[in-house]
Amino acid sequence: MEAARYGPWSDLPPELLGLVLKRLPSLADRVRLRAVCHPWRSNGLLQQLPIPFPWLTLPDGTFFSIPGGEVHRMPIPDGARCCGAIDNWLFLMSSDDTCTLMNPFSKTTFELPNLVAVWRREAHYESDPKQLLYKLVTPSALDISPDSLIAALTKDGGNGTLCISQPPIATYMVQGNRKPLQHLFDVAFFDGKLYAVSVFGKLFSLKFRNNLGSKPKIKCVIESLGDCRGGPECIPREEVCTYRLYLVECGGRLLMVRRFIRHIGPLSRDYVFENMQTGGFVVLEADLGSNPCRWRRISELGALFIGQHGSKSMPARECSGSEEDCIYFICDYPHPKYFSSPFRDWCVQHAK
């Protein structure tokens, strides 16, 4: 009778397993549950579940799991380091500066142009390539193939080099201190075009011809912030803040997130970034249908996850455990050569 009352855990009915999985918003927890036994794995894959929280890429190539707060390091080949990610693809750089994308689950890899060589060719001063910040974007991150178009923004402090390629051949490079693309903050694909945002909210579109070996057509779409220059209501107008810009596609809209960073103590030449903290956000939508095109302020976002390595939007109702109109972030604004804990300034804020 006792044996009949308590069966093995592997015999847990699929409907009960689904109820458990729906209470696990963390991707890592779902993976652990499915790894218990083969029936749990096969039955778990059949469940219709809310989208799990994405992982945030940390400056050292590890990943931060929301909401569990765990730091994960994905297995990568010896001699390589992780410099970023595009959804399920890791951006790896080997000791000889060879660049690849690798899916850590299928182990599929795609070769990329040597971004360090591109940067050195375009830059006019010496710097340690290991201290550069890399962001990669594609028109469809979940459908990367050998002929996928990939744009890589390599940043060294306030400078940025944009490399647009079809692996493994680089097709177009521009240094961010040259016209027309000066002082680039971020790039994102939207509606088949690559968009780049520079200082003062100037937005450019880059349209590619059939021959990707030729230069794209660059057009300034939005000249300035216009009437959207103000900061969040929680920061007094007279207070001087540093800001960062992030581009992200959200539900058929192109958004720019302005992150305002406050000085919370005396300025120091050596530890300036340790005396700074995110004070608030302003989210703007590119109104590309108006004439002229302009930025307009919005507050209905869903869930936004922002970072210099990559940004992502998700409908809050489809993301397990997330809140409406919230922005998730970590401290990734210092230049990589300056030490700063990514958890010194991380939180989730409601958009204002």
Shape: globular
Major sheet size, sense and barrel closure? 4 strands, antiparallel
Radius of gyration over all CA atoms, rounded: 22 Å
Helical content (DSSP H or I, runs of 4+): 10-25%
What's the order of the H and E elements?
A: HHHHEEEEEEEHEEEEEEEEEEEEEEEE
- End-to-end separation in angstroms reads 61 Å
> What assembly state would you assign to the polypeptide chains in this entry?
single chain
Residue-averaged pLDDT: 80
Low-confidence stretches: none
Structural class of the secondary elements? Answer: mainly beta
Strand content: 35-45%
Number of domains: 2
Query: How are the strands of the largest sheet arranged?
Result: 4-5-6-7
Question: What's the β-strand tally?
Answer: 23
**Tally of alpha and pi helices:** 5
Description:
The protein is mainly β. The protein has 2 domains: 9-49, Up-down Bundle (Monooxygenase), CATH 1.20.1280; 50-350. 11% of the residues lie in helices and 37% in strands. Strands 4-5-6-7 form a 4-stranded antiparallel β-sheet, with no helix packed on it. It has a 4-stranded antiparallel β-sheet with strand order 8-9-10-11, with helices on one face. A 4-stranded antiparallel β-sheet has the order 12-13-14-15, with no helix packed on it. The mean pLDDT is 80. Residues 9-42 form the F-box domain. This is DUF295 domain-containing protein. Pfam families: Beta-prop_KIB1-4, F-box-like. It comes from Triticum aestivum.
Keywords summarizing the entry:
single chain, 352 residues, Monooxygenase, 4-stranded antiparallel β-sheet, 5 helices, 23 strands, globular
